[in-house]
């Protein structure tokens, strides 16, 4: 089953945090070659985050382009002491996805927004509990109520951008089971958040 301490391994070797930090710093200096390299290294994972939230590939592809425009524009705001470069970029992607959901305004989108708004507040586990935002505290409490495998699948899918296929392969679990865990887990999260909010 999926480990609670390490995310599933992706097909390619993870990019060093230092290298991504350097690329972001170079983007701040309008270095287009650094931006192209950053896109090549990170676009697949960020696309995964967007697809998990938006669920429609064409919309996720458009959101990916907008995400990278924002990464280019905001590269100078990244601070290494606030988390890893990939976590920061995933946060930019999640904000972009939530903006898309708000603009679409459909009932289904609003239902997903309720949960995704809290997922966007995913806490920095390096911080003490009392320093987390209220949304992050609520999310932590509700995530702790979920079964371990369900919790891991939701975190890895929505916060790290892993596909259902990757989660199934790494956890040696049928893909239908992974999808079921995520679907039921999100429903449980929403119910818990409604109760605690």
Write the layout of secondary structure elements.
Elements: H1 17-28, H2 32-54, H3 57-74, H4 85-104, H5 107-119, H6 134-145, H7 148-158, H8 164-171, H9 175-196
Helix pairs in contact: 1-2, 2-3, 2-4, 3-4, 4-5, 6-9, 7-9, 8-9
Q: Could you please describe the fold and organization of this structure?
A:
The chain is mainly α and 197 residues long. The chain has 2 domains: 1-105, Orthogonal Bundle (Rna Polymerase Sigma Factor, Chain: A), CATH 1.10.1740.10; 111-197, Arc Repressor Mutant, subunit A (Orthogonal Bundle). It has helices spanning 17-28, 32-54, 57-74, 85-104, 107-119, 134-145, 148-158, 164-171, 175-196. Helix 2 (32-54) crosses helix 3 (57-74) and helix 3 packs across helix 4.
Brief descriptors of the model:
197 residues; mainly alpha; Rna Polymerase Sigma Factor, Chain: A; Arc Repressor Mutant, subunit A; 2 domains; globular; disordered N terminus
């Amino acid at each position: 089953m999926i480990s609670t301490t390490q995310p599933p391994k992706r097909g390619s070797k993870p990019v060093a945090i230092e290298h991504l930090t350097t690329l972001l710093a170079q983007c701040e200096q309008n270095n287009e070659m650094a931006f192209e390299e950053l896109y090549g290294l990170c676009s697949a994972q960020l696309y995964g985050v967007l697809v998990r939230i938006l669920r429609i590939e064409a919309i996720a592809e458009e959101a990916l382009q907008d995400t990278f425009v924002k990464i280019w524009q905001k590269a100078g705001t990244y601070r290494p002491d606030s988390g890893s470069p990939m976590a920061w970029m995933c946060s930019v992607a999640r904000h972009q996805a939530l903006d898309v959901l708000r603009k679409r305004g459909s009932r289904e989108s609003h239902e997903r927004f309720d949960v995704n708004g809290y997922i966007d507040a995913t806490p920095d586990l390096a911080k003490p509990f009392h320093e987390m935002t209220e949304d992050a505290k609520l999310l932590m409490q509700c995530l702790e109520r979920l079964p371990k495998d369900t919790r891991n699948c939701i975190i890895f899918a929505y916060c790290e951008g892993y596909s259902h296929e990757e989660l199934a392969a790494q956890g040696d679990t049928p893909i239908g089971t992974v999808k079921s865990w995520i679907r039921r887990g999100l429903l449980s999260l929403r119910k818990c958040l409604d109760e605690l909010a």
